[in-house]
């Protein structure tokens, strides 16, 4: 299973868009790789429908989406119509590809099989694996959700925003942060550098210990 900071595998596979070469498809932007247990299931349909309805928000962040399940391509193509209809969208095709990982080769490689969810033959299905990949193909975020628990689109967008700010603006993201709120300075940026790195200014929260380390700055633009 890959870890944070690793290069995301450059696989070639079959998808609803034909042969998909992972790194070529990602191009020079970010990518969100999402696996799901199975087509024609309620939670998966709600997830992909929401992603399709809000796909423009991912495009604004220069982030493509790639999905995967262990179903074959013809089943994906049939299911796409239901997903689009459930989301109230026109058309029969999702704005992102779905990989057909029938042999579980990619799911095993990524460590996303779920022993609690199996097909009719008793073979594990893919869990809700979540990987955010940067333009250099490094993995910046990993999470695995169990089959019955759907992900939150707002949180996926928050993760992308936060990690892009970390990557490009040398900040840290506090708990419960939302876009537009204050961020924190990075520990590897010294107070002498604050004026250059954080041109909007820096404030410090006084602590009982007397130590100065809770530094805040207005969120920079991306």
UniProtKB/TrEMBL annotation:
SUPFAM superfamilies: Thioredoxin-like. Pfam families: AhpC-TSA (PF00578). InterPro entries: AhpC/TSA, Peroxiredoxin, Peroxiredoxin_AhpC-typ, Thioredoxin-like_sf, Thioredoxin_domain. Residues 2-165 form the Thioredoxin domain. The keyword Electron transport does not apply. One of its GO terms (molecular function) is peroxidase activity. One of its GO terms (cellular component) is cytosol. GO terms for biological process: cell redox homeostasis. The active site is at 44 (cysteine sulfenic acid (-soh) intermediate). Keywords: Antioxidant, Oxidoreductase, Peroxidase, Redox-active center. Belongs to the peroxiredoxin family. Prx6 subfamily. Thiol-specific peroxidase that catalyzes the reduction of hydrogen peroxide and organic hydroperoxides to water and alcohols, respectively. This is Thioredoxin domain-containing protein. It comes from Monosiga brevicollis (Choanoflagellate). The lineage of its organism: Eukaryota, Choanoflagellata, Craspedida, Salpingoecidae, Monosiga.
């Amino acid at each position: 299973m890959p870890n944070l900071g690793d290069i995301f595998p450059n696989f070639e596979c079959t998808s609803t868009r034909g042969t998909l070469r992972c790194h070529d498809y990602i191009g020079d932007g970010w990518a969100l790789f999402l696996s799901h247990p199975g087509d024609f299931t309620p939670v998966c349909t709600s997830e992909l429908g929401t992603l399709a309805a809000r796909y423009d928000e991912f495009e604004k962040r220069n982030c493509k989406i790639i999905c995967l399940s262990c179903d074959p391509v013809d089943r994906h193509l049939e299911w796409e119509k239901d997903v689009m209809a459930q989301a109230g969208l026109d058309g029969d095709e999702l704005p992102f590809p779905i990989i057909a990982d029938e042999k579980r080769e990619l799911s095993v490689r990524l460590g996303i099989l779920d022993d609690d969810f199996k097909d009719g033959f008793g073979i594990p299905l893919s869990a809700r694996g979540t990987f955010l990949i940067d333009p250099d193909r490094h993995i910046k975020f990993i999470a695995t959700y169990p089959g019955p628990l759907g992900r939150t689109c707002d949180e996926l967008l928050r993760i992308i925003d936060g990690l892009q700010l970390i990557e490009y603006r040398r900040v840290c993201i506090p708990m419960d942060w939302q876009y537009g709120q204050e961020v924190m300075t990075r520990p590897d940026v010294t107070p002498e550098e604050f004026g250059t790195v954080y041109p909007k200014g820096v404030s410090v929260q006084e602590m009982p210990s007397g130590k100065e380390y809770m530094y805040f700055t207005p969120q920079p633009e991306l």
